[in-house]
Each structure stands twice: as C-alpha cells, then as structure tokens.
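Researcher: Good morning. I'm working through a list of sequences from a screen, and I'd like to move beyond sequence-only analysis. For each chain I'm collecting a predicted structure so we can compare shapes side by side. This is the next one on the list. No need for commentary yet; just the structure.
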Amino acid sequence: MADRTVTSESERDDDNARRKRILYRCQHRGMKEMDILLGGYVGENIATMSEAELATLEVLMDVSDQELFAWMIGRKPVPAEHDTELYRAIAAYRSQSS
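Model: Good morning. Structure tokens for this chain:
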C-alpha cells in the first residue's frame, strides 16, 4: 500500500511540474500578444485541464507565434488538425478579453 502512495505522490509531483512548465512556456513565447493571449488563457485554466487537454495544448505550443497569431486574428484559416475544442476555447477567450 505504501508503494501506491509513493507512486501517487510522484505522479502528482510530475503533473504539477508539467503544468508549471506549460504555463511558463505559454507566458514566455516571445511575441507579447501571444504571451498575453495564450498565457492568460492557460493561467486561468491550467489547474483544471485534463490530460488530453494538456497534450493538445503541448502540440499547439509547438506552432510558431506568427502562425498561431494569424489564426487567432483570422488572417489565416486554422488547419483541421489544430481546430480543436481547446483551440476554439482559446480563441473565444481572445474575443472575451478584447
């Protein structure tokens, strides 16, 4: 039983560290507009995001700031593979915070 608790605590620590890394990366992207937009959304929602949402977010974070910003402002269409529920929630957040 003790091993299960250690594993659980270790997993929780790993999850917390992952969430902190994600938040930091979203708030320090290099383009101020994306720092505010993505960092703001993630800052408000990271604590309640599911494993699947975190994985989707990590994929989205690999998109360049310029490309992601172009999607957000409607300059370019969002590719189907990135047009996820999470992306739409972030885009809606942009609309709410404008």
